[in-house]
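Here we describe the complex-level prediction in full. Unlike the single-chain runs in Section 2.1, the two entities below were treated as one system.
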Amino acid sequence: MAIIHPCSKIQLPEMKSLFGSPGKVSGLVLRMGQCLFAAASLAVMASASGFSTATSFCFLIAAMGVQVLWSFGLACLDIHALRLNKDLHNHIVLSLLVIGDWVTAILSLAAACSSAGVMVVFMKDTGICRLETTLSCKTFQISVALAFVAWFLLAVSSYVMFWLLASI
Amino acid sequence: MAIIHPCSKIQLPEMKSLFGSPGKVSGLVLRMGQCLFAAASLAVMASASGFSTATSFCFLIAAMGVQVLWSFGLACLDIHALRLNKDLHNHIVLSLLVIGDWVTAILSLAAACSSAGVMVVFMKDTGICRLETTLSCKTFQISVALAFVAWFLLAVSSYVMFWLLASI
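The structure predicted for the assembly as a whole is:
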């Protein structure tokens, strides 16, 4: 007869298979998505003429640079954990990942929102985009949209990490 | 002899006394702080001349309005729970609070950051503040600073709620 443990409510094995957990294929896909979208946003913004006219666009490039480095590093960690079948679910690793994820996510959202605010000023409030043809406003918009996608993917990872940390 | 329960690791009573929990005095203080700072930010921005020149400033007013309503509602809920000594730590209440808190927090951060981005454009990138004296740029700055404080207090509540939801 199978003995049911009285503490079976803790359900650690179920928690570990959460979508996007570190050291899982879904986690790796999420990290690679973050890295790709952030890199695309950075490249598009850096290639746009006149991006240095607004400080927010320079901030977006810096924030996306930080996100590329962070997500690429964690994608490498996931690959390492998958290859060696390592378990990354310990308190110290998860705490570091939660802090890093949240700082990067807030930075990315702040950069994307401030750039979006500047875009609205340029396109609607002052109409600089129509007057100055040297500014590639369409390119700025694409970059900001990519930054929002990159932030969204990072936010998913951040919530999963925080949930895992709170439930171990 | 005291019997130690094998599942004592769950520590529910400790979790409930977390700083800023719903139905606690610390939670009520946090909600009142959020409500006050958001209302102050809204009032300062609405009293500034020329705030309607930038869409982001109107968005800030809307977002702070939402935060005032949300935080005021939850402050009332906390007072109700404190007076009747009710327990708000159940899954449905916490899930609703987590969703509401996170939506409001992201909205507030987006509004504060986009307004800050526009402020930088007005003060540094284009120098509109120096040219157009009808814009009360100092007042805009105070409002954006208050919005960041209101967002920070809401972010603390959001993390506490999410932590509680993950650990019950």
